[in-house]
Design brief:
The structure holds two protein chains of two kinds. By secondary structure, chain A is of the alpha/beta class. Helix content of chain A is 29%, strand content 19%. Chain A has a five-stranded mixed barrel with strand order 2-3-4-6-5. Chain B is mostly helical. In chain B, helix 3 packs parallel to helix 6 and helix 6 runs antiparallel to helix 7. The chains are: A alpha/beta, B mainly alpha. At the A-B interface, helix 1, helix 2, helix 3 and helix 4 of A face helix 1, helix 2, helix 3, helix 8 and helix 10 of B.
Chain lengths: 239, 329
């Protein structure tokens, strides 16, 4: 591959790395903190391409040269694959399909569960599941909570789910609450939206005491009292 | 590099590059429709996620590789490393503790170290140890296993043993000619010329290594969709089968070493030992790494090094587990 083609490849690769960081689409794939690493790395890739091109122009090196005359590898073309997938497909955040592909289970992420205020609790979906499953003082059992997640099916049950990632979407694991009862608004909608997106809901409900154990595969029950369709949050994942 | 004027061929790779981009833009709606199936979209998300997660670490690796090429001459390297290779191996393992990166960063650095004249055994130990025993990974492991803090020590022990054992094994049985893609030591420069070496090295490394990262990301995304989750449920309480499956799964899933502890922790139906094997094998050998190694060191190297590392890592993982956990747990 000619040097100038390599420069062009690095330029578009660095370009898409910077592009996903401009809006929040980077949050579909990695943790928010990773954005700045991507900005730095994208800038470095663009910088390396520019430095190489400038050196070619000044005649220090020759644009039409292969780096290794003996090594006519076509492998570098593969770098176009992530560029094209990001630019043309822009894959969505993991949703109901990914929930179906996991076997469930929940991680004990800490021993410290600070005391909760009275009244209705606004907590992350993962927090509610953690406390329902692992907190020995059963701090959310029987409490009314407001949680946000998307609808999914898991082993025949309708669940409200939220993916949890620690590095990137490849290590995503779902937090799930099994939805019980019916909302005053009518039966639960099912399946993805007409445009293929997830059905994000804000659900007000009560955590059923005694659920969230090995018998129900660590998926606690939530009795619905109200639900509101909401747009997908800018960061679709919890950590 | 040649200064002779070449005849201009009809279509250069740059023309092909532009044609591919143009065709892709024109066929955009067709491509978007093709990705409508939920499984394919999940795979595409995982593919992009692995690429975006690993690229900053790969860029860090190639920049380090460039700096080594520009500033660490073979003479300096020989002075820093112990003369006896058998001693240089654990020194390289210890040095790996300070590079807080994922496995993608360590491949170009290890290759550059070999190019600059470091003993191959020591560079390979560094390659295996750097992603597994650095503080970021150990803290992540401690966070993921609050109920089993001994997991951190067991992981450290298992990974460092794997890295050193592979170094010593290479010293005894490895052959230099297996590494077919060699690098000449970078020309020693001064002042501005050094920085030119840094930029050129980093650029060339990024183009070649990045392509193989893409291969690994495709494989990891495909397997994420193809491995049925029911397989894992069937493993509950089965020690030997669990160890075997988790070792293979570590290779197939190609998780970043900073994240694999959380995935291992979420597989609560399995005993600790298979999950430890998962953590020891993953950073040492997985699809993404094998693709990177085949690209940077050559195929003859990868087909020998990867299976040997796999066997050593499984053994070291089980051994460290038995020792630290005090039995089958």
């Amino acid at each position: 591959m000619r040097r100038d083609t390599q420069h062009a490849l690095l330029l578009v690769l660095g370009g898409v790395m910077l592009r996903v960081c401009v809006d929040d689409s980077v949050l579909r794939y990695v943790r928010p903190g990773h954005r700045w690493l991507l900005v730095a790395a994208g800038t470095a890739a663009v910088g390396l391409a520019v430095v190489g091109a400038v050196r070619d122009l000044r005649g220090r090196t020759h644009a039409a040269d292969d780096d290794h005359a003996h090594d006519r590898s076509h492998a570098p073309w593969l770098l176009l694959l992530p560029v094209l997938v990001i630019a043309l497909v822009a894959p969505p955040a993991l949703g109901a399909d990914a929930v179906n592909r996991t076997s469930g289970g929940t991680v004990r992420s800490g021993d410290l569960y600070p005391p909760l205020p009275g009244g209705t609790l606004a907590l992350g979906l993962g927090d509610v599941v953690d406390r329902a499953v692992w907190d020995d003082s059963r701090s959310v059992a029987g409490r009314e909570v407001v949680v946000t997640g998307f609808l999914a099916r898991h082993r025949g049950d309708v669940v409200l789910a939220r993916m949890r990632i620690s590095c990137c979407a490849a290590d995503a694991r779902p937090s799930m609450l099994r939805l019980r009862g019916t909302a005053p608004e009518g039966p639960l909608p099912d399946g993805p939206l007409p445009d293929g997106g997830e059905r994000w809901l804000q659900v007000r409900g009560t955590v059923v005491p005694g659920t969230g154990n090995v018998a129900d595969r660590y998926v606690p029950d939530l009795t619905i009292s109200a639900l509101t369709p909401v747009p997908a949050p800018s960061d679709p994942y919890e950590s | 590099m040649t200064t002779a004027v070449r005849p201009r061929p009809g279509a250069t790779s740059l023309h092909v590059f532009c044609a591919v981009l143009l065709a892709a833009v024109l066929a955009r709606s067709l491509i978007a429709d093709a990705f409508d199936a939920p499984a394919l979209r999940t795979a595409a998300t995982v593919f992009v996620a692995v690429c975006l997660q690993a690229l900053p670490f790969l860029v860090l690796g190639v920049l380090l590789s460039g700096l080594i090429a520009g500033f660490v001459s073979p003479v300096v390297l020989r002075r820093v490393l112990p003369a006896r290779t058998a001693v240089a191996v654990p020194v390289a393992g210890a040095a790996a503790m300070v590079l807080p990166g994922c496995e993608c960063a360590s491949v170009p650095v290890a290759r550059r170290l070999i190019g600059q004249g470091a003993p191959e055994a020591a560079a390979l130990t560094f390659l295996l140890a750097a992603p597994a025993v650095n503080p970021v990974v150990l803290v992540a492991t401690a966070t993921a296993f609050p109920d089993a803090p001994e997991m951190v020590g067991a992981r450290f022990l298992g990974s460092l043993t794997t890295a050193c054992a592979m170094g010593w094994l290479w010293q005894r049985a490895g052959r230099s000619e297996w590494i077919t893609r060699r690098l000449a030591p970078a020309p020693a420069g001064t002042g501005k010329a050094r920085w030119a070496v840094v930029a050129e090295t980093a650029r060339a490394d990024l183009v070649s290594a990045g392509a193989f990262l893409v291969v690994g990301a495709v494989a990891a995304a495909a397997l994420r969709v193809l491995v049925p989750p029911q397989w894992l449920d069937a493993l509950a309480g089965r020690m030997l089968l669990g160890i075997a499956v988790m070792a293979v799964l570590a290779v197939l899933l190609s998780l970043c070493s900073e994240a694999d502890a959380f995935v291992a922790a979420s597989l609560a139906m399995l005993p600790l030992l298979p999950r430890l094997v998962f953590l020891v094998v993953g950073p040492a050998v997985d699809l993404k790494l094998v693709a990177l190694q085949a690209g940077t060191f050559g195929r003859a190297f990868a087909v020998r090094f990867a299976p040997a590392t796999f066997a050593v890592a499984v053994t070291a993982g089980v051994g460290a587990g038995l020792l630290v956990f005090g039995g089958l747990r």
